[in-house]
Amino acid sequence: MTAVREIEIGQLCLGMYVHKLGTSWLDHPFVRSSFLLETQEDLRKIQDIGIRTVWIDESKGLTLDESTAVAEVDAPEEWPVELAAPVEEEAQQGGKERSLAPTSMMVELEHARAFCLAAKEEVKQLFADLRMGKTVTEASVIPLVEEISASISRNQAALISVARLKTHDDYTYLHSVAVCGLMLALAKQLGLDDMQTKKAGVGGLMHDFGKAFMPLDVLNKPGKLTDDEFAIMKQHPVEGARALQQSGASAEAVDIALHHHEKISGLGYPHGLKGNEITLLARMGAVCDVYDAVTSVRAYKEPWDPAMAMHQMAQWQGHFDTSIFNAFVKSVGIYPVGSLVRLASNRLAVVTEPGKHSLLSPIVRVFHSLTSQQDIHVETVDLGAPSCRDSIVARMDPAVVGGRNLNAYWQ
Ligand SMILES: [Fe+2]
Q1: CA distance 12 to 403
Q2: Does 196 reside within a domain?
Q3: Is 97 inside a domain boundary?
Q4: For the chain, which terminus, N or C, has the lower number of CB atoms within 10 Å?
Q5: Comparing 58-67, 101-110, 238-247, 289-298, which segment has the lowest mean pLDDT?
Q6: Domain tally for the chain?
Q7: How far is the CA of 182 from the centre of ligand 1 (A)?
Q8: How many H helices and E strands in the chain?
Q9: Residue range(s) defining the domain that contains residue 391
Protein backbone atom coordinates (compact mmCIF):
# COMPACT_ATOMS: atom_id res chain seq x y z
CA MET A 1 0.00 0.00 0.00
CA THR A 2 1.44 3.35 -0.97
CA ALA A 3 2.17 5.91 1.70
CA VAL A 4 2.13 8.78 -0.79
CA ARG A 5 -0.89 11.06 -0.61
CA GLU A 6 -1.89 14.41 -2.02
CA ILE A 7 -2.70 17.12 0.51
CA GLU A 8 -3.70 20.78 0.37
CA ILE A 9 -0.83 23.27 0.72
CA GLY A 10 -2.52 24.59 3.86
CA GLN A 11 -2.16 21.14 5.47
CA LEU A 12 1.58 20.92 4.85
CA CYS A 13 3.70 21.25 7.97
CA LEU A 14 7.22 20.72 9.29
CA GLY A 15 8.23 17.08 9.66
CA MET A 16 6.31 15.94 6.59
CA TYR A 17 8.26 14.34 3.77
CA VAL A 18 7.62 16.12 0.48
CA HIS A 19 7.41 13.44 -2.23
CA LYS A 20 6.50 15.64 -5.19
CA LEU A 21 5.78 19.32 -5.55
CA GLY A 22 3.37 19.08 -8.45
CA THR A 23 5.47 21.40 -10.57
CA SER A 24 8.54 20.98 -12.74
CA TRP A 25 11.96 20.91 -11.04
CA LEU A 26 12.73 24.07 -13.01
CA ASP A 27 9.77 25.88 -11.48
CA HIS A 28 10.48 25.34 -7.79
CA PRO A 29 13.43 26.61 -5.74
CA PHE A 30 14.71 23.32 -4.30
CA VAL A 31 17.73 21.30 -5.42
CA ARG A 32 15.75 18.10 -4.77
CA SER A 33 12.13 17.43 -5.59
CA SER A 34 11.75 15.03 -2.61
CA PHE A 35 12.90 16.00 0.87
CA LEU A 36 12.01 16.16 4.52
CA LEU A 37 10.45 19.53 5.29
CA GLU A 38 12.57 20.81 8.18
CA THR A 39 12.47 24.60 8.26
CA GLN A 40 9.87 27.37 8.24
CA GLU A 41 11.87 29.00 5.46
CA ASP A 42 11.40 25.95 3.19
CA LEU A 43 7.72 25.80 4.11
CA ARG A 44 7.34 29.44 3.10
CA LYS A 45 9.19 28.79 -0.18
CA ILE A 46 6.72 26.00 -1.03
CA GLN A 47 3.76 28.23 -0.16
CA ASP A 48 5.24 30.92 -2.42
CA ILE A 49 5.43 28.64 -5.49
CA GLY A 50 1.70 29.08 -5.95
CA ILE A 51 0.72 25.41 -6.17
CA ARG A 52 -2.55 24.22 -4.61
CA THR A 53 -1.56 20.70 -3.53
CA VAL A 54 1.54 18.72 -2.71
CA TRP A 55 2.27 14.98 -2.46
CA ILE A 56 3.74 13.75 0.83
CA ASP A 57 5.20 10.34 1.70
CA GLU A 58 3.85 9.35 5.08
CA SER A 59 6.30 6.46 5.44
CA LYS A 60 9.20 8.91 5.60
CA GLY A 61 7.82 11.74 7.68
CA LEU A 62 4.90 13.04 9.65
CA THR A 63 1.47 11.80 8.52
CA LEU A 64 -1.51 14.10 8.05
CA ASP A 65 -3.12 12.62 11.18
CA GLU A 66 0.03 13.11 13.25
CA SER A 67 0.30 16.70 12.08
CA THR A 68 -2.99 17.51 13.77
CA ALA A 69 -1.49 16.43 17.09
CA VAL A 70 1.62 18.51 16.41
CA ALA A 71 -0.53 21.55 15.60
CA GLU A 72 -1.99 21.39 19.10
CA VAL A 73 1.43 22.05 20.65
CA ASP A 74 3.75 24.94 19.74
CA ALA A 75 5.20 24.26 16.28
CA PRO A 76 9.02 24.41 16.32
CA GLU A 77 10.77 26.94 14.12
CA GLU A 78 13.19 24.23 12.97
CA TRP A 79 12.21 20.57 12.90
CA PRO A 80 14.28 18.30 15.21
CA VAL A 81 17.33 16.93 13.39
CA GLU A 82 16.58 13.32 14.37
CA LEU A 83 13.62 13.29 12.00
CA ALA A 84 16.02 13.70 9.11
CA ALA A 85 17.37 10.20 9.81
CA PRO A 86 15.17 8.24 7.35
CA VAL A 87 16.41 10.38 4.46
CA GLU A 88 20.08 9.93 5.32
CA GLU A 89 19.64 6.24 5.98
CA GLU A 90 18.17 5.71 2.56
CA ALA A 91 20.98 7.68 0.93
CA GLN A 92 23.55 5.53 2.69
CA GLN A 93 21.79 2.43 1.46
CA GLY A 94 22.21 3.63 -2.08
CA GLY A 95 18.53 4.45 -2.42
CA LYS A 96 17.14 7.03 -4.81
CA GLU A 97 17.36 9.89 -2.31
CA ARG A 98 20.24 12.26 -2.81
CA SER A 99 22.06 13.50 0.26
CA LEU A 100 23.34 17.06 0.09
CA ALA A 101 25.53 16.80 3.20
CA PRO A 102 29.14 17.85 2.50
CA THR A 103 31.48 15.02 1.52
CA SER A 104 35.26 14.71 1.42
CA MET A 105 37.04 14.99 -1.91
CA MET A 106 37.92 11.29 -1.79
CA VAL A 107 34.33 10.18 -1.22
CA GLU A 108 32.85 12.51 -3.82
CA LEU A 109 35.49 11.60 -6.42
CA GLU A 110 34.42 7.99 -6.20
CA HIS A 111 30.79 8.99 -6.64
CA ALA A 112 31.65 11.37 -9.48
CA ARG A 113 33.63 8.72 -11.37
CA ALA A 114 30.70 6.28 -11.29
CA PHE A 115 28.24 9.03 -12.14
CA CYS A 116 30.28 10.33 -15.10
CA LEU A 117 30.50 6.83 -16.60
CA ALA A 118 26.72 6.51 -16.51
CA ALA A 119 26.06 10.13 -17.50
CA LYS A 120 28.29 9.81 -20.56
CA GLU A 121 26.10 6.97 -21.87
CA GLU A 122 22.91 8.90 -21.13
CA VAL A 123 24.10 12.03 -22.93
CA LYS A 124 25.36 9.87 -25.81
CA GLN A 125 21.84 8.47 -26.13
CA LEU A 126 20.35 11.98 -26.10
CA PHE A 127 22.66 12.98 -28.97
CA ALA A 128 21.71 9.78 -30.83
CA ASP A 129 18.03 10.61 -30.34
CA LEU A 130 18.58 14.13 -31.69
CA ARG A 131 20.37 12.73 -34.74
CA MET A 132 17.40 10.42 -35.35
CA GLY A 133 15.10 13.43 -35.37
CA LYS A 134 13.58 12.65 -31.96
CA THR A 135 12.63 15.43 -29.60
CA VAL A 136 14.76 15.77 -26.48
CA THR A 137 12.99 17.81 -23.83
CA GLU A 138 14.31 19.64 -20.80
CA ALA A 139 12.40 17.14 -18.65
CA SER A 140 14.58 14.33 -20.00
CA VAL A 141 17.81 15.99 -18.79
CA ILE A 142 16.53 17.14 -15.40
CA PRO A 143 17.44 13.89 -13.55
CA LEU A 144 21.02 14.29 -14.80
CA VAL A 145 21.16 17.96 -13.83
CA GLU A 146 19.71 17.13 -10.40
CA GLU A 147 22.48 14.56 -9.84
CA ILE A 148 25.17 16.99 -10.98
CA SER A 149 23.68 19.72 -8.81
CA ALA A 150 23.63 17.43 -5.77
CA SER A 151 27.27 16.43 -6.32
CA ILE A 152 28.33 20.09 -6.65
CA SER A 153 26.38 20.88 -3.45
CA ARG A 154 28.19 18.14 -1.55
CA ASN A 155 31.65 18.93 -2.92
CA GLN A 156 32.22 21.62 -5.49
CA ALA A 157 35.49 20.36 -6.98
CA ALA A 158 35.09 16.59 -7.41
CA LEU A 159 32.66 16.20 -10.30
CA ILE A 160 34.08 19.19 -12.16
CA SER A 161 37.55 17.64 -11.94
CA VAL A 162 36.43 14.18 -13.06
CA ALA A 163 34.33 15.50 -15.97
CA ARG A 164 37.42 17.34 -17.24
CA LEU A 165 39.16 14.03 -17.89
CA LYS A 166 37.83 12.60 -21.11
CA THR A 167 39.03 10.92 -24.25
CA HIS A 168 38.56 12.49 -27.65
CA ASP A 169 35.69 10.09 -28.38
CA ASP A 170 33.82 10.98 -25.20
CA TYR A 171 34.47 14.70 -25.48
CA THR A 172 31.09 15.93 -26.71
CA TYR A 173 29.14 13.95 -24.10
CA LEU A 174 31.25 14.61 -21.02
CA HIS A 175 31.72 18.23 -22.11
CA SER A 176 27.95 18.62 -21.61
CA VAL A 177 28.26 17.20 -18.08
CA ALA A 178 31.31 19.34 -17.28
CA VAL A 179 29.74 22.59 -18.53
CA CYS A 180 26.58 21.81 -16.55
CA GLY A 181 28.67 21.41 -13.36
CA LEU A 182 30.72 24.53 -14.06
CA MET A 183 27.57 26.56 -14.73
CA LEU A 184 26.00 25.43 -11.45
CA ALA A 185 29.15 26.28 -9.49
CA LEU A 186 29.46 29.66 -11.22
CA ALA A 187 25.78 30.47 -10.63
CA LYS A 188 26.31 29.78 -6.93
CA GLN A 189 29.39 32.01 -6.88
CA LEU A 190 27.46 34.81 -8.61
CA GLY A 191 24.68 34.48 -6.03
CA LEU A 192 21.98 33.68 -8.60
CA ASP A 193 18.68 32.55 -7.14
CA ASP A 194 17.72 28.87 -7.16
CA MET A 195 15.58 29.07 -10.27
CA GLN A 196 18.25 30.85 -12.32
CA THR A 197 20.85 28.42 -11.02
CA LYS A 198 18.83 25.46 -12.24
CA LYS A 199 18.30 27.12 -15.61
CA ALA A 200 22.06 27.69 -15.85
CA GLY A 201 22.61 23.98 -15.17
CA VAL A 202 20.02 22.75 -17.66
CA GLY A 203 21.30 25.21 -20.28
CA GLY A 204 24.86 24.04 -19.62
CA LEU A 205 23.92 20.41 -20.18
CA MET A 206 22.08 21.19 -23.44
CA HIS A 207 24.33 23.99 -24.76
CA ASP A 208 26.01 21.91 -27.48
CA PHE A 209 23.01 19.83 -28.57
CA GLY A 210 23.39 21.46 -31.99
CA LYS A 211 26.53 19.35 -32.50
CA ALA A 212 24.19 16.37 -32.97
CA PHE A 213 23.26 17.89 -36.32
CA MET A 214 26.83 18.37 -37.53
CA PRO A 215 28.31 15.89 -40.04
CA LEU A 216 30.03 13.13 -38.02
CA ASP A 217 33.18 13.22 -40.14
CA VAL A 218 33.61 16.91 -39.26
CA LEU A 219 32.53 16.56 -35.61
CA ASN A 220 34.88 13.62 -34.99
CA LYS A 221 37.71 14.68 -37.30
CA PRO A 222 41.01 13.62 -35.72
CA GLY A 223 42.80 16.87 -36.50
CA LYS A 224 42.39 20.58 -36.93
CA LEU A 225 39.37 21.71 -38.95
CA THR A 226 39.77 23.43 -42.31
CA ASP A 227 38.11 26.85 -42.75
CA ASP A 228 35.20 25.22 -44.59
CA GLU A 229 34.73 22.61 -41.86
CA PHE A 230 34.89 25.29 -39.18
CA ALA A 231 32.20 27.25 -41.05
CA ILE A 232 29.99 24.15 -40.87
CA MET A 233 30.66 23.67 -37.14
CA LYS A 234 29.76 27.31 -36.51
CA GLN A 235 26.19 26.34 -37.35
CA HIS A 236 25.82 24.25 -34.20
CA PRO A 237 24.51 27.09 -31.95
CA VAL A 238 21.70 27.87 -34.42
CA GLU A 239 20.89 24.17 -34.93
CA GLY A 240 20.89 23.55 -31.17
CA ALA A 241 18.65 26.52 -30.46
CA ARG A 242 16.25 25.39 -33.20
CA ALA A 243 16.00 21.88 -31.71
CA LEU A 244 15.53 23.22 -28.19
CA GLN A 245 12.90 25.70 -29.28
CA GLN A 246 10.98 22.96 -31.10
CA SER A 247 11.10 20.78 -27.98
CA GLY A 248 9.51 23.54 -25.90
CA ALA A 249 12.67 24.24 -23.85
CA SER A 250 12.86 27.36 -21.70
CA ALA A 251 13.95 30.65 -23.29
CA GLU A 252 17.10 30.50 -21.13
CA ALA A 253 18.17 27.08 -22.47
CA VAL A 254 17.56 28.23 -26.05
CA ASP A 255 19.55 31.41 -25.39
CA ILE A 256 22.55 29.56 -23.90
CA ALA A 257 22.62 27.14 -26.86
CA LEU A 258 22.39 30.01 -29.35
CA HIS A 259 24.83 32.45 -27.78
CA HIS A 260 27.55 30.57 -25.88
CA HIS A 261 30.05 31.39 -28.66
CA GLU A 262 29.41 35.14 -28.62
CA LYS A 263 32.24 37.37 -27.34
CA ILE A 264 32.02 40.62 -25.41
CA SER A 265 33.95 42.33 -28.24
CA GLY A 266 31.25 41.44 -30.76
CA LEU A 267 33.62 39.12 -32.62
CA GLY A 268 31.85 35.90 -31.66
CA TYR A 269 29.17 33.94 -33.51
CA PRO A 270 26.45 33.42 -34.70
CA HIS A 271 25.17 36.99 -34.25
CA GLY A 272 28.23 39.04 -33.27
CA LEU A 273 26.45 40.34 -30.16
CA LYS A 274 28.42 42.79 -27.99
CA GLY A 275 28.70 43.31 -24.22
CA ASN A 276 25.33 43.40 -22.52
CA GLU A 277 23.56 42.37 -25.69
CA ILE A 278 24.67 38.93 -24.56
CA THR A 279 22.60 37.69 -21.61
CA LEU A 280 24.16 36.86 -18.27
CA LEU A 281 23.53 33.11 -18.73
CA ALA A 282 25.07 33.11 -22.22
CA ARG A 283 28.12 35.04 -20.93
CA MET A 284 28.46 32.43 -18.19
CA GLY A 285 28.15 29.69 -20.81
CA ALA A 286 31.00 31.20 -22.83
CA VAL A 287 33.44 31.03 -19.89
CA CYS A 288 32.46 27.50 -18.79
CA ASP A 289 32.51 26.16 -22.35
CA VAL A 290 35.98 27.48 -23.12
CA TYR A 291 37.52 26.39 -19.81
CA ASP A 292 36.38 22.80 -20.25
CA ALA A 293 37.36 22.78 -23.92
CA VAL A 294 40.93 23.98 -23.39
CA THR A 295 41.58 21.72 -20.38
CA SER A 296 40.31 18.58 -22.19
CA VAL A 297 42.15 16.27 -24.57
CA ARG A 298 41.25 17.16 -28.15
CA ALA A 299 42.24 15.42 -31.36
CA TYR A 300 44.56 18.24 -32.32
CA LYS A 301 46.04 19.32 -28.99
CA GLU A 302 47.11 18.30 -25.54
CA PRO A 303 44.94 19.64 -22.72
CA TRP A 304 46.12 22.77 -20.97
CA ASP A 305 47.03 22.56 -17.33
CA PRO A 306 44.01 24.00 -15.42
CA ALA A 307 46.01 26.83 -13.83
CA MET A 308 47.53 27.68 -17.20
CA ALA A 309 44.03 27.76 -18.70
CA MET A 310 42.95 30.29 -16.06
CA HIS A 311 46.04 32.39 -16.75
CA GLN A 312 45.58 32.30 -20.53
CA MET A 313 41.86 33.01 -20.44
CA ALA A 314 42.50 36.03 -18.19
CA GLN A 315 44.72 37.48 -20.94
CA TRP A 316 42.15 37.24 -23.73
CA GLN A 317 40.91 40.74 -24.39
CA GLY A 318 37.26 41.09 -25.37
CA HIS A 319 36.40 37.41 -25.10
CA PHE A 320 34.72 37.14 -21.70
CA ASP A 321 32.78 39.35 -19.34
CA THR A 322 35.49 40.27 -16.80
CA SER A 323 33.27 40.16 -13.72
CA ILE A 324 31.90 36.75 -14.71
CA PHE A 325 35.39 35.46 -15.42
CA ASN A 326 36.56 36.67 -12.01
CA ALA A 327 33.65 34.87 -10.33
CA PHE A 328 34.52 31.77 -12.34
CA VAL A 329 38.09 31.88 -11.01
CA LYS A 330 36.71 32.11 -7.49
CA SER A 331 34.43 29.13 -8.06
CA VAL A 332 36.98 26.82 -9.69
CA GLY A 333 40.20 28.24 -8.25
CA ILE A 334 43.29 30.10 -9.42
CA TYR A 335 44.98 26.71 -9.11
CA PRO A 336 42.16 24.25 -9.94
CA VAL A 337 42.48 20.56 -9.04
CA GLY A 338 45.12 18.94 -11.26
CA SER A 339 47.29 22.06 -11.65
CA LEU A 340 51.08 21.61 -11.50
CA VAL A 341 52.76 24.14 -9.19
CA ARG A 342 56.21 24.98 -7.81
CA LEU A 343 56.43 25.57 -4.09
CA ALA A 344 58.70 27.94 -2.18
CA SER A 345 60.56 24.82 -0.98
CA ASN A 346 61.57 24.26 -4.65
CA ARG A 347 59.38 21.18 -4.91
CA LEU A 348 56.81 20.32 -7.56
CA ALA A 349 53.28 19.47 -6.50
CA VAL A 350 49.86 18.77 -8.01
CA VAL A 351 46.77 20.49 -6.59
CA THR A 352 44.42 17.86 -5.18
CA GLU A 353 41.77 19.93 -3.40
CA PRO A 354 40.75 23.57 -3.20
CA GLY A 355 41.98 25.48 -0.15
CA LYS A 356 39.52 25.72 2.70
CA HIS A 357 40.18 29.41 3.31
CA SER A 358 42.14 30.83 0.38
CA LEU A 359 42.32 30.33 -3.37
CA LEU A 360 46.09 30.69 -3.06
CA SER A 361 46.55 27.89 -0.52
CA PRO A 362 45.06 24.63 -1.86
CA ILE A 363 45.87 21.11 -0.69
CA VAL A 364 48.64 19.58 -2.84
CA ARG A 365 50.56 16.35 -3.37
CA VAL A 366 54.30 16.99 -3.41
CA PHE A 367 56.31 14.53 -5.55
CA HIS A 368 59.53 16.04 -6.98
CA SER A 369 62.47 18.13 -5.79
CA LEU A 370 63.77 20.66 -8.29
CA THR A 371 66.87 21.09 -6.12
CA SER A 372 67.94 17.45 -6.35
CA GLN A 373 66.16 16.91 -9.68
CA GLN A 374 64.75 13.72 -8.20
CA ASP A 375 61.38 12.35 -7.26
CA ILE A 376 60.74 12.42 -3.54
CA HIS A 377 58.42 10.62 -1.17
CA VAL A 378 54.89 11.67 -2.18
CA GLU A 379 53.11 13.54 0.59
CA THR A 380 49.96 15.59 0.99
CA VAL A 381 50.48 19.18 2.17
CA ASP A 382 47.69 21.53 3.17
CA LEU A 383 49.16 24.89 2.20
CA GLY A 384 46.42 26.63 4.17
CA ALA A 385 47.23 24.89 7.47
CA PRO A 386 48.48 27.35 10.14
CA SER A 387 51.58 25.20 10.69
CA CYS A 388 52.47 25.07 6.98
CA ARG A 389 55.53 27.13 6.03
CA ASP A 390 55.37 26.33 2.31
CA SER A 391 53.46 28.17 -0.43
CA ILE A 392 52.93 28.25 -4.19
CA VAL A 393 55.38 30.48 -6.05
CA ALA A 394 54.45 29.60 -9.64
CA ARG A 395 52.28 27.46 -11.83
CA MET A 396 54.33 25.12 -14.00
CA ASP A 397 54.04 23.76 -17.52
CA PRO A 398 53.43 19.99 -17.23
CA ALA A 399 56.06 19.58 -19.99
CA VAL A 400 58.73 19.96 -17.26
CA VAL A 401 57.82 16.49 -16.00
CA GLY A 402 57.52 14.92 -19.44
CA GLY A 403 54.69 12.51 -20.07
CA ARG A 404 53.94 11.89 -16.39
CA ASN A 405 50.28 11.35 -15.59
CA LEU A 406 49.70 14.20 -13.13
CA ASN A 407 46.04 13.25 -12.73
CA ALA A 408 47.12 10.12 -10.86
CA TYR A 409 48.13 12.35 -7.93
CA TRP A 410 44.63 13.64 -7.28
CA GLN A 411 42.52 10.78 -8.57
FE1 LIG B 1 29.52 25.07 -28.62
Answers
A1: 59
A2: yes
A3: no
A4: N
A5: 58-67
A6: 3
A7: 15
A8: 15, 9
A9: 340-409
